[in-house]
Amino acid sequence: MSTETAAAAAEVVAPPPAGWEEARSRVYAVGLAAALPAVSRPLADADGHTLAEPLTPRTDLPAFPTSSVDGWAVRGDGPWQVVGRVLAGHTPPPLEADGSTVEIATGAMVPEGATAILRIEESTRTADGRVAGTPRPAPEWREPGEEAYAGEELLPAGTPVDPAVLGLAASCGHDTLRVRRRPRAALLVFGDELLTSGPPGAGRVRDALGPSVPAWLRRYGCQVRPADVVGPVADTLPAHVAALRAALADADLVCTTGGTMHGPVDHLHPTLEALGADYVVNTVAVRPGFPMLLARLVDDDGRVRFVAGLPGNPQSAVVALVSLVAPLLAGLQGRPMPVLPQVTLAEPVTGRGDHTHLALVRWDRVAGTAHPVRHVGSAMLRGLAGADGFAVIRPGTTGAAGDRVPVVPLPLTPGERAW
């Protein structure tokens, strides 16, 4: 490094870090302000998207009186003369005469004029072929609107679309849904010291973030193609600028790994400056995970894109994902800011002074307790592989056994509403 370069690096003054909770709120707000446009998707293609408008039924649910049992739809007192049969999917004629009945299947439309339904197992046949029995006093059919009325809001905008939502939408009569499209994401891996195959050695380490970060992003609702993962990018400023400019051409969010400091081969900050980005958050007072950042670029046409600078240490990178990327993506998809669940610490967890401590834990959801795990250094992934989330130990505090603290769940399966 030249004397001039060293002097310039020494003059870099890092901004004061944002508080962890403040940073989460800030990135969620900018994400929500840049929420992705609504599109129409057929039900078969809507899973994993987010409702852009409330889900309402197109008709009452059920739309007509529906038999809850197999049996006999009867009119008046019995015994009853059988005049027909009603199966699901058909519109029956009215029962016009007292003392008449039609056999009816579960789910079939109850004919007009029916006064009760007699269960098949509680009926008998008389010698002359009529039906006898005593109907139960409670109606054995579902009334129109029993589940919902036409136009009633069943789910608000911002609800993630999952199989249950798809089934409900179909029952409401929808063929398509208005949803926010899934964010497109890319990953740039920085670091000449990284290997992309084989065991580490000879001063080089295996890249653990190239394979894992896209999987985390998909679990938060992003589209990430294999071609969207690029690296290792050469440790030069021109290479960084070219790679980030190319990634931003298609992506709503580009994550980078490493280069968030101001060292001799840390080119992320100069790259962001060269591309005209502005910082939403530049460093967060959280351990592990320091430093991390989120920057925003706005095109002349108003299109907004984001760059999330993740630290190079693997566990710190995941802390940055749950701290900055997850709330940003919630906003971009029009989802509400999640409320973190509370857990009871089963063992003590140390604090980190003026920084928030995100401590890896196993979460016993039955007992509501969190158990700290081992092997949790910034560069380690062993503890993360056995954890369910991060217990939040606020600045200036420590976590004692029995304390109630927030927990940030990890999205451990695709589509899981973990956070």
From TrEMBL:
Cofactor(s) required for function per UniProt: Mg(2+)
PANTHER family, per the entry: GEPHYRIN, MOLYBDOPTERIN BIOSYNTHESIS PROTEIN
SMART domains for this protein: MoCF_biosynth (SM00852)
Protein name per Swiss-Prot or TrEMBL: Molybdopterin molybdenumtransferase
Keyword Transcription regulation: no
Keywords in alphabetical order: Magnesium, Metal-binding, Molybdenum, Molybdenum cofactor biosynthesis, Transferase
InterPro entries hit by this protein: MoaB/Mog-like_dom_sf, MoaB/Mog_dom, MoeA-like, MoeA_C_domain_IV, MoeA_C_domain_IV_sf, MoeA_linker/N, MoeA_linker/N_sf
One Pfam family per UniProt: MoeA_N
CDD domains given in the database record: MoeA
UniProt family annotation: Belongs to the MoeA family.
Pathway: Cofactor biosynthesis; molybdopterin biosynthesis
Function: Catalyzes the insertion of molybdate into adenylated molybdopterin with the concomitant release of AMP.
Record bears the keyword Lyase: no
Enzyme class per UniProt: transferase
Native organism taxonomy: Bacteria, Bacillati, Actinomycetota, Actinomycetes, Micromonosporales
Catalytic reaction equation(s): adenylyl-molybdopterin + molybdate = Mo-molybdopterin + AMP + H(+)
Enzyme Commission (EC) number: 2.10.1.1
Domain MoaB/Mog: 186-331
